[in-house]
Amino acid sequence: MGTVLTSTKGFTLYWFSLDTSAKSKCNGSCAAGWPPVAGPVSAASGVSLSGKLGTITRADGSMQETYNGHPLYTFAGDSGPGQTGGNGISAFGGTWHAVTTSGTVGPASSPSSSGGGYGY
What we know:
Strand order of the largest sheet: 2-7-6
Distance between the termini: 19 Å
Number of helices: 1
Number of strands: 8
Radius of gyration: 13 Å
Helix content: under 10%
Oligomer: single chain
Structural class: mainly beta
Largest sheet: 3 strands, antiparallel
């Protein structure tokens, strides 16, 4: 899968196939299972993601962080840092993907337990 982006606590960050660069389609019960990453945030010390970070305003008025045009989420099913259990899951009408440092989609098969090297 490559190196995935993680939260400051080491949890894998995901993007949702139905989202657009300006709007999250994951609200209500979806957001309970896939908590949005609150924005704005910045890259960890020593990590250069210049130009790839951004924010959107969610339907409830809160801010959500984006990376490479994708609103970011964590997955409630990941119980610890480095897990990628949400990668490739089809739920809420779309597919969830771990965010790689290249900004590309990770493979949808066999989620691994290896973690990322970048954090927020």
